[in-house]
Description:
By secondary structure, the protein is mainly β. 4% of the residues lie in helices and 45% in strands.
Amino acid sequence: MAPLVDDTVECCLDLLSRCGIGTADITAAHATRAPDDGVPPALLDEGLQPLCWELPGDGVATLLRWLVEEGKPFAAGDRLALLRTPGGALVRLSAPGRAGVLARTHAEPGERVRSLDWLATVGLAAVPRPAPAWDGATVTDRYTLSTPSEDTVRVGWSPDGRHLATSSNQSPVRIWDAATGRQARTVGGDRASLTLAWSPDGERFATSGTGPKVTVRSGGGEWLYDLEGHDGRVYATAWSPDGRFLATAGYDDTARVWDAAGGRELRVLHGHRTMVSSVAWSPDGTRLLTASYDNTARIWDPATGAHVDTLTGHDSAVSQAVWSPDGSRVATSSHDKTVRIWGASHQPEVLDGHGFGLYTLAWSPDGRHIAAGGIGGTSVWDAERGTHLGRIDGPQRVQSLAWSPDGQWLATAGDDHVRVRRLGP
């Protein structure tokens, strides 16, 4: 028991020191205990794989330290890391159910982490697993855009469908010829771009990196202006349908509305209790939709900043929220492994079948299908019947996906590649 107590005291003193609090400032202490069996990882796949965990409680914790060093082996079920929840409980993250090597860690001690964040990459022995199935239609591969050693986080089609844009954590926005899959140019110098949004006229880009600033550039890459106001990383950016406004969302728990003519901040939307993970305009531009890791989505009036409605029901973080093409319904994806479709009744239809946490989704332009991606690849549902048509890829992680404007092709982005496919005859 003594080593555990010593570890706990050491972790607490380290955290207090980071916050500028000395032992003389402490008048009382309270200890809580997490289950001894640890928290198992949420995904086990063969080869070199990302690893993430479903954290207890609100799904937020502080990483105290790694218990296995990078490059070192671990046995099945070993403890890989030690975390602390906001309530004070210590949480131990378990290794997969077979031995491997901790190839790389993706979070540092003292960093705040959330459920299903990619925290480590491990090497595991290969095991047989069935190929993912697609029961709804034929899947035709068009091409794969290779971005070696890059974590591709966003993909978007140009409004005319002639080009694809991709962003990653290691490079600027890349523009690809959608017909051939050849790279045409880059936008943004040598800066990494974690978000991207193509203006409705195809003449401008809005991108953001690891900081609070959003940069707007011409289609050729010329700097136009910056949007500055967020207190923390910007997680999503969206243009209004008429191109007159931009909406952004970020880690500071807010969404913001900007004048796209020059970058003046018009509205700050407060209400979510933690980071805002996505933002989307209604097709007619009169409503703004946000999703948050507080397990909700919200609808706003962008003209006044007024909160219109809250969509509740997910059991975990809501990763993205989108409007149906006709603006009559909303679809949300979540780390709770489901997609939900919301109409006027506020009784959502729950779409399940994927089996893993979901990071992104998109409604097809004709309104017939919903595609959602996350851990384990991409799933597609019949949007009218709510039927899970199957998974079209896996087991890799998909962080972003987008239908082509004509609805003929689906682009999915994750890890070090982008795939473009046709779903149907």
